[in-house]
């Protein structure tokens, strides 16, 4: 970037060292955000930053007052040179998108690279719950097995799967379930009937999905629209033999209502990768139930996904600081104002025109 300001990128950590390898030859200053260091050190880095790879909620939970490092309006006001913020994965609930748009900051996520890992994890939950694998394992380890018929499970073949959110993860899950001959229902207001039909699924409203599904899979992002989407009414409408599974974000469902539904027998069980509080407390009542299997937000954590996400993250930052359209831009309406600020702050003009931009939100 001759005759231009050298961009400064603040990163809490990469999912894999491959990101640093990709950016090694780029003309970008990369500064680490140490969540365990004094707060003034972090602010010293961020207040002069042009880009910020936002720490996850699970990351900031490790630090005292860690929420200050999420991309909220308060952080944005303290960082006048900030041009772009990106989330580490598909979820972007750690970023106040509206506040960023008002400030002329582009927002990106990293949907796509981790979809395979999360979709496979979701399928694993389905198989585990249906076949009672974890239940049988616990019984076997706790003492002599009496009547094995008490551990009788069910099969996926011919069952009905309801997918809430047909993005990269939901779409891949649909593909993985094809060999099981399942009927697949989808609720996603951003997917039209034609697109649903092309995937071999049927678009329905949420009420029909929860009433008819044997497995309700939540794979949508956490937004104002989806917060509290699955609550007491939806759990009450599910079959008593149905399973609730989520690899999305905890606040998409009502945790207290889920607990009540599981304890009362309104639903058969749940597979949970996310919670309202992460990591969940050891005494979280959901973790005390035999009909719940859980993982600590690790659905997307595989060696392959970590590397793919790191490479995608790094190449997206290269595109941003080269003045290109980020491949996973979430707020395209910001582009004209962003271009003005980009030129003012870094001294170069982004090459793309606003008319060429389209949102890639999934």
Automatic annotation (TrEMBL):
Residues 123-299 form the D-isomer specific 2-hydroxyacid dehydrogenase NAD-binding domain. SUPFAM superfamilies: Formate/glycerate dehydrogenase catalytic domain-like (SSF52283), NAD(P)-binding Rossmann-fold domains (SSF51735). Residues 70-331 form the D-isomer specific 2-hydroxyacid dehydrogenase catalytic domain. PROSITE patterns: D_2_HYDROXYACID_DH_1. Keywords: Amino-acid biosynthesis, NAD, Oxidoreductase. Signal peptide: none annotated. Belongs to the D-isomer specific 2-hydroxyacid dehydrogenase family. This is Hydroxyacid dehydrogenase. It comes from Mycobacterium paraterrae. The lineage of its organism: Bacteria, Bacillati, Actinomycetota, Actinomycetes, Mycobacteriales.
């Amino acid at each position: 970037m001759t005759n231009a300001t050298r961009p400064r990128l603040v990163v809490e950590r990469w999912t894999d060292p491959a990101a640093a390898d990709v950016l090694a030859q780029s003309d970008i200053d990369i500064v680490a955000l140490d969540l365990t260091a004094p707060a003034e050190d972090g602010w010293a880095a961020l207040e002069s930053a042009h880009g910020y790879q936002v720490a996850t909620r699970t990351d900031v939970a490790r630090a005292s007052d860690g929420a200050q490092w999420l991309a909220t309006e308060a952080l944005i006001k303290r960082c006048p040179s900030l041009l772009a913020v990106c989330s580490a994965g598909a979820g972007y609930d750690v970023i106040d998108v509206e506040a960023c748009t008002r400030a002329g900051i582009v927002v990106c996520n990293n949907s796509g690279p981790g979809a395979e890992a999360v979709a496979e994890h979701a399928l694993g939950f389905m198989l585990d719950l249906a076949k009672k694998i974890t239940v049988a394992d616990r019984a076997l380890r706790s003492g002599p097995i009496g009547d094995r018929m008490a551990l009788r499970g069910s099969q996926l073949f011919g069952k009905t799967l309801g997918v809430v959110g047909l993005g990269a993860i939901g779409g891949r899950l649909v593909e993985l379930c094809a060999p099981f001959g399942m009927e697949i229902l989808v609720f996603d207001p951003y997917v039209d009937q034609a697109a649903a039909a092309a995937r071999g699924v049927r678009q329905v409203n949420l009420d029909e999905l929860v009433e008819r599904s044997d497995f309700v899979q939540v794979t949508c992002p956490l937004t104002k629209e989806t917060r509290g989407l699955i609550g007491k009414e939806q759990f009450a409408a599910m079959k008593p033999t149905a399973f609730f599974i989520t690899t999305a974000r905890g606040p998409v469902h009502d945790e207290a209502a889920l607990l009540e539904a599981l304890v009362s027998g309104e639903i058969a069980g749940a597979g949970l990768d996310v919670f309202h509080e992460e990591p969940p407390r050891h005494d979280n009542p959901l973790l005390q139930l035999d009909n719940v299997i859980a993982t600590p937000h690790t659905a997307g954590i595989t060696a392959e996904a970590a590397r793919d996400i790191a490479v995608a993250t790094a190449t997206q930052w290269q595109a941003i600081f080269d003045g290109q359209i980020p491949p996973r831009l979430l707020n395209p309406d910001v582009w004209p104002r962003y271009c003005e600020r980009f030129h003012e702050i870094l001294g170069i003009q982004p090459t793309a025109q606003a008319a060429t931009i389209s949102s890639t939100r999934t």
